[in-house]
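Continuing from the previous page of notes. For each protein in this section, the sequence appears first, followed by its structure tokens. Read the first protein now.
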Amino acid sequence: MQPTARDAVSASADTAAVPVPDGPAARGPRARTAAAYLRYGAAKAGGAAVSLLAVLVTGFFLFRLIPGDPVKTMTGGRQVSAAQLVEYRKEFGLDLPVWEQFTDYCRKALTGDLGTSYQFRTPVVDKIGEALPNTLLLTGTAFVLYTALGMFLGTRSAWRHGRLGDRLNTGLALVLYSVPSFWLGLLAIIVFGVGLGPVPGLFPTGGMETGGKEGFAYVLDVAHHLVLPVLTLVAVEYGQTLLVIRSALLDEMGSDYLTTARAKGLRDDLVRRRHAVPNALLPTVTLVFVNLGRTVAGVILVETVFSWPGLGGLFYQALSVPDLPLVQGLFLFFASAVIIMNTLADLVYPLLDPRVGR
């Protein structure tokens, strides 16, 4: 029997009565994934904000436990009356109650004002800006070298697991990673800077430049001064990257997808580069971002040993006074760099492995 007009109208009414789904489920898997990533990113950003607030509070109270009076240290060796000492403390705000100093410090820090250095009488932000390029030059150069070296040797060691080269690479990495950086730096100065026996001193023992040079000669002079501190950092730090990438690759070695790739006739180096290494990058990404944070912060001991005019040397110099605004500002800067890089690593994870953040 042919359908009547009444049947058609009834069917249209039934269709219109069916509810249409709304929200992320109606927009498809891609929209749901984006919404999940936004929630994941917001949670990580909130955690980073809480960590920065904790660093702000810790930095203020921690360095006030350092023994010594900053005013007396700055006026050491000079005849200063009690009235002058009181005036100095009033100038630097040290006569205020601790809680008032703390609220003033937090209020200014949240607006980007880290105070004025006691010993340099200049804003802390300006001192950090002056020393930061020197630190980035030193630790940035070392970061690129030890990351590349560690990843190359780590992948080779994992792929040749148990062989002589693997044992030698792993043993040397463990030894150098356990050596204190300042001790290795002093040893490098003795052997390659001062000279030992028949070996003459080949490199400067400290500083960033000799002085009096311009143009390309200046670039070569700075590069000459870079050799020993960079060599020290690379020797100490590359082992960590090697061990992490080696361990991650060893976990992937027995996977079925590698057996399938070999069965398809792919060369061994292609299987390693295209399949094994990308799937072993997740823990390595964490390490790379953490090391990037440390690159911004600088390496205090190495910069101090080699008298490098960077943030690490500035931090050591400020601690000796103690220059509270400068110490607090550098501590906040160092910690912020590490926290931000860790947060960026967390945000990169879902892009490398979609299972993260679901």
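Done with the first. The second protein uses the same format. Note its length before scrolling.
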Amino acid sequence: MKKNELLAALEQRLGRLHARQRLGIEADHEAQVFGQGLNFFHIENWYSVHSVIRNTLKLCGLYWRGRKNAERIVLKTNHVPSTRLPAQFDGFTILHISDTHVDMNQRAMQRLAELVTGLQYDVCVLTGDFRGATFGPFDAALKGIERLVAHLKPPIFGVLGNHDTIQMLPELEAMGIRMLQNECGVITRGEQSIYLAGIDDAHYFRVDNIEKAAAPIPEGAFAILLSHTPEIYRQAAHAGFDLLLSGHTHGGQICLPGAIPITLDSVLPRRMGAGAWHYGNMTGYTSVGAGSSVVAVRYNCPPEITLHRLTRA
């Protein structure tokens, strides 16, 4: 798609301000290592350090073990009880896939495709970081996501992450993924409904708008928020969301024994860096991700996808 055509399509889809703001920030700060976003330092943007980490792991004899670990995606189940869940949605199941970075590790993505095939769920959500790099070409990432989507059952909802360019949006939606860009969808069973909202990246580009995403949700309705990063947990809880599904942290990806992360690359309490947690009246879940960032290795932090089963408490 040509630049003018893309801009016109994005302005029509998102509105003039959101489209121009996201594209402008991408152009201004592409691959910036220091400054911008919630973190001052962004290791994923510092590409000279990628080879340093890789070569260091090879010299230590750890690299290939880490590669194997990164390919061993596991399926987890998370139970989400709620007194606010409508009776018709008791047992409603969400397949949650995050941080695929599909062009980083082909074997891991093959494992992912095998793992999702035949799973039983009601809706699939993708919480961002489809691309491995933070700038440059994204055709390989789109092709990888298209291969994955062929193994998924609709409906599929998604949000963008800090590795993703807004230029990917038209093709992601053409694949059948309903991308939620500070927007909200409704899922209905019989005469009852729950609401599924999603925001644009809040970690690096900071173009999230929870107020806009939550605006269509009626008072007292059960509501789920998709965000690439869990760092907006306070805003989400005070906006009345019941469940926040996110990723971004990779659970640390390279962890000490006992799954202790060296860094989460996030501004939030460590207890929220992986798995289930609570804040106020809101339940949260931070996926450690199906893929790997910077270097395609994992230690003491296996990649995952998750089935969230909602139950009426």
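What the second structure shows: The first strand starts at residue 74 and ends at 82. The radius of gyration is 19 Å. We return to this in next week's lecture.
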